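Suppose a colleague, Dr. K., hands you the sequence of a protein chain of 766 amino acids and asks what its three-dimensional shape might be. Before reaching for any lab equipment, you can write down a predicted structure in token form. Begin with the sequence itself:
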Amino acid sequence: MNDNLSLVKEIKDLGVLQGKYKPHKHIALLAAIRILKAKPENGCRVYYDSDFKQSFTKIFLKYAGINDRDRPYNPFFHLKSTSFWELIPLKGKETTLLSLSRISGPSQLMEVVSHAEVNDDFMKLILDNNTSINIESLITECLENRIIDLEDEDTKPIESFERIKVALEHNVAPNPFVAYLNSLHSRDAGNENALAESQACNPNFSKIYVRHPLVDTILQCLTGEMGQSVVLTGHAGDGKSTIALTVYKHLKNIDEQSVLPFPLGRREDITLPNGHCLAIIKDFSEWKTIERDDLIAEVMAKKVRALFVSNTGVLLDALCGYAERTNLGNRSDWEPRILEAMDAESSDFQFDAANFAFLNIALTDNLSLARLIFDRILSDENWKACDRQSCRSQCPIYRNVELFRVNSFLAKHRLFLAYRRMYEYGTRLTIRQLTAHLAYLLTAGMEYADIQNFARRDDKHLMSEFLFYNRFFGDNGHTEDLAAVRMPVIREVRAQGFGQRPCPATERHLWLLTHGDDFTLGVSLLEEEFGKLRRYGSQMKEQENGLTPDQAREQVRRMLYFLYKSDNAGRNDAFLQQFLGSLAIIKWEQWQTPDARLSMDESSHFKQRVFHVLQEQFTGVRLPEVGGPGQQSHLYITLSRHKQDIRQSAQVVLAQIDFSNEFKITLSLSKQRRDLVLVGQGRLDGINLTLTLPFLDYVLARHQGEVGETLQGAYADRLERLKADIIRRCRNREDDEMLLVRLRTNHTFLRQHFAIEDGKLEVSNA
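The predicted structure, expressed as tokens, is then:
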């Protein structure tokens, strides 16, 4: 233990030279560690070769000062002064090496030294994923801060040094999976392990890997008789590179869970037993124009079938540019056709002689995939290492895992219900963002040292500060985690306003303690904490234990949302809907099951409410829910001025339809999702309107009398297009006839028909 602590201190002190900080030894050591991990075939040996020099220079350019020189041979030689680095001489150069106190240049080094070797103890440390991450972090923090002396009273000890120290003092290896999860969210955005390139070589990746459903589609296209190449597009972080990696492993007969010794190259060529040549292009944006043209030419000549991983802009430029340069047509001819193919979730596209399958992963609903990944994260195998830890019972990370295990269905269902609400309101998170968020809400960014320190604290009520129902929002229940809120996904979550509106039916039982003592959360792990927060929230004190009553009440609402289920189904749904700010979310989520059907009562219920919103939109008049005979079926489109300060008692009717018979509401059936659709019938056949969750929420809110609710601008435009379509099909075509509707005092319409017969104006109430 003491030897290890001395080693860590020795590594820190490498930067000290004559009272000043010099980065060269730290840079050389960091380069060596990365090479040793990347080349296990070298064992403990580090060679002064092009790999070392290139790695050194790459790090040097990032961290060097203005007066530093890029001379990797110097630190390679002088690291021999450490306890873990030994220079191995060339045969016959043993004496020469012993006599050298300095090196004049790279030639002299290579004339004397065969290679360097690190000792076994050091090698064990860097082969352990958790320790290695901490050592590399220690070095980079020294480089970034140019740290000289950790013992200086004016210098704050750097975090990596403290983490390693605590781990070694307790002589228990921390769970390396926690370090891996932290690398996935990496609150400071230094997120190497979130990238597919690093995942290919990371043994922890297999612990969370889930096969993407598009893999089978791609394999069928590439190996089928049609001879299709595949274009895989989508946003950064959608999992395109992981899909390409899986396809590569399958075609090479490599187990999907296995770790590659190297990441995929920019082009991987594979010859199938049937003679077909396939190419996997990891990132088409990395290619120069002439290289892109050559590859497209290969595909056109049917020399190869390719999987292109590319963003939309790069592929569009590549195909259109190739067409123009080879006289296949102008950009103006090809661009709209290519864009149309890309705008679909999947489509076939013929580019002259080449047959492409376009797959746009950004248009797919990825929440089911993310849930499977979360199941993998929570699997028992990943948390066995925690069983040996004395701090387990006081570990917030392990408590989070337990809460999801004990309340598996409920907690995960509520978590992904919140994601569903975000998705339907236009916030689609990528797989990388979702995985990062899931990792963060479990770990809160805590490392082993943080957990040990927390376990020794007396104020255990603060456990909730690190629990997932708070960290979902990027805070500890009262204060933002400033590092976490830099994550885009946290900013998106906080923008939703979840839990900001109280739910009166539930809140009465929460804060009137004299009447609600029997109100329990139903989760033994949190019952005591739930009771404390309820007491804080019901009091009038400005602050208790660092919490205001408002903050305590907000935490209680969060706990209820994720972990509580009332015996009263109606009250339960009402609370969830209020928390998420969506009156239709429960029904919407139920409709997403494969065997979902719309009952007659549900169809009638929503149809009636949609009718009233459309009537208000088309006339500017809000009608009561109940009217006289026939009032509820006629939908009028009128000439009206939609201004709140103008009351038009009479309006000219442009078109009228029998809404009850000419429209129906149905639940569409597709591969991935179910949508509620307003479908025209008879003369309105082909006029359809997809009813999104935001629109349904607006409809239900207006029905409840929430006059402050406003229709989204984009949806108002869609309703205006629906209005125009109806007018084209149904407008009154008789020039000598006119229909007016007059608004009665009871907010119902009186229809009046005007016609000219034999030169006389006739008026009748229709």
